[in-house]
Amino acid sequence: MRLRYQTKEILSLILSIGIGALAGVGTLGFLVLIKVGQWGLWPGQGEFMARVMAAPWWLKLLIPTLGGLAVGPLIAFWAPEARGPGVPDVIEAAALREGHMSPRSALLKAGCTALTIASGGSVGREGPVVGLGAAIGSAMTRLFSFSEGKGRICLACGVAAGFAATFNTPIAGALFTIEVILADMEVVYLGHIVIAAIVGVLISRQFFGDFPTFAVAPFVFHQNVELLVYLALGLLAGLIAIAFTVGIYATDSWFRGLTLPEWLKPALGGLGLGALALVSPYVLGVGYDSINLGLAGKFALSAAALLLLMKYLATVLCLGSGMSGGIMGPFVPAMVSCIASFMVVKSLYGYSTYETKLLRRGVKIFLGRGVHVLQSMHVKDYLSREMEILHDDTPLPEILQRAEASPYPNFVVLDDHDELSGVLTLWDLRKVQWPREEAAKLLTARDLKTPDAVTVHPDDDFETALKLLQHKNFSFLPVVLPPRDRVVVGILKIDDVLTAYNQRLLKDRVLRYPPRGS
């Protein structure tokens, strides 16, 4: 049995290497396609931005317009799923379609994005690369008749390899896959994902060399006050990220409302992009050239601010008009001081750009799975009727004694009518400003409790309960009966919710993909 297990693990690792190699080759082909398109569309010598700078004004208007005119019919008639960012499609495939990704969609997405970028479109290249890697992993799943669990791993390996090969960063590729695409991946599969990412990078380096996508200058930390600057940058970046997300989908709605044929709208976006390029040619393309110039300190602050505004307008125009491409490349100037930025987005807006696209489709994802599972599970089936109860007049010495003896020292506090009065946890006890010993004995649960307890009803679903538990950082919620919400029938613990959710997912996997031979 042990030998059989080891053999399966070795074969899994070999498959991860194979997927990484294929995804690396696919990424290489996509990048070459972009280069060939840029050389063919933009006359002159040198790299893309040098050709753009040397082009006459009418070409800066014409080429993006023609690019939109070429991409528009492809998306409108053959690949409507290629419109906009492609990463949400991969997230949806991992969460709702058992890791299945259509090769046709991925190839069309890659082709449309390559044409968009080559003609100057202000979009990223990570979306189609992630889609290509996912499609390769999905194809391997079907080729070897793997189960749903293995299918998600194969998809993840392809995504990590493609992302890593694009940015020449194996660790970033693995982390992007786990955090953004899967969101709930078990650690046991981390090795497969990292190996695939490393193989993808090795393939890329054979042709493009061992050069980072972004040339970051050596960093020297001089004084602590610099941390405040980085915090301010993070807060600003979070606001800019929200503006990007809102702008993209507001522009998308505006273009969808125009009484023009769908295939013609990207051409209109391309014309607008060309007009912006007359003011700042750096708005054309993915934007890595301008990022590296900024990292090298070759942009004045005023020029950088202008470029940020112009790049914002160019990106929302391209994606909103229906062109194909990613969002990460144009977003990179805002991706600094990440923790503060993340907190601002989550607090003020709540969702990432990828999540917003899925929500506009009516798709909700939680922990890497479709939220429909949470909506089918209800509080009444998982609440605990065994709970620690105090009354308002319970004295402090008794509270401390019961807290020390209880395996779960979180209390529901009831009033004189045995109705909900509040909750009391160890955290409430810790934050008490203790008086002298004799005076402390006079304290009761009424003095220590949190009176405004957040509650749920028995018929509420797990989506509702988890939002309250996580957003408020609670470990449990009292379950009360409507309409007065005062009669307590039990408590719902976050550990029980997550355990039940994981068991439900496991049950669904087993029922959908029974073991072979059963």
Keywords:
mainly alpha, 3-stranded mixed sheet, 23 helices, elongated, disordered C terminus
Task: Describe the secondary-structure layout.
Layout (H helix, E strand, L loop, with lengths): L1 H40 L6 H7 L2 H22 L8 H10 L6 H16 L7 H18 L4 H20 L2 H13 L7 H19 L17 H32 L7 H15 L8 H8 L5 H20 L7 H4 L6 H11 L4 H8 L4 E2 L2 E2 L1 H4 L12 E4 L4 H10 L5 E4 L5 E5 L1 H5 L6 H4 L4 H4 L13 H10 L4 E5 L7 E6 H19 L6
Parallel strand pairs: 3-4
Antiparallel strand pairs: 1-2, 4-5, 6-7
| Whole-angstrom Rg | 27 Å
| SSE succession | HHHHHHHHHHHHHHHHEEHEHEEHHHHEEH
Which structural category do the helix and sheet elements fall into? mainly alpha
Largest sheet: 3 strands, mixed
* Helix share, percent: 55-70%
Can you describe what's shown?
This protein is mainly α and 518 residues long. Helix content is 62%, strand content 5%. The chain has 23 helices and seven strands. The strands form three sheets. It has a three-stranded mixed sheet with strand order 3-4-5. A two-stranded antiparallel sheet has the order 1-2. Strand 4 and strand 5 form a beta hairpin. Helix 1 packs antiparallel against helix 6, helix 1 runs parallel beside helix 9 and helix 4 packs across helix 16. The radius of gyration is 27 Å and the shape is elongated. The two termini are 18 Å apart. 42% of the residues are buried.
Summarize the structure.
This protein has helices at 2-41, 48-54, 57-78, 87-96, 103-118, 126-143, 148-167, 170-182, 190-208, 226-257, 265-279, 288-295, 301-320, 328-331, 338-348, 353-360, 372-375, 396-405, 426-430, 437-440, 445-448, 462-471, 494-512, and strands spanning 365-366, 369-370, 388-391, 411-414, 420-424, 476-480, 488-493. It is mainly alpha-helical.
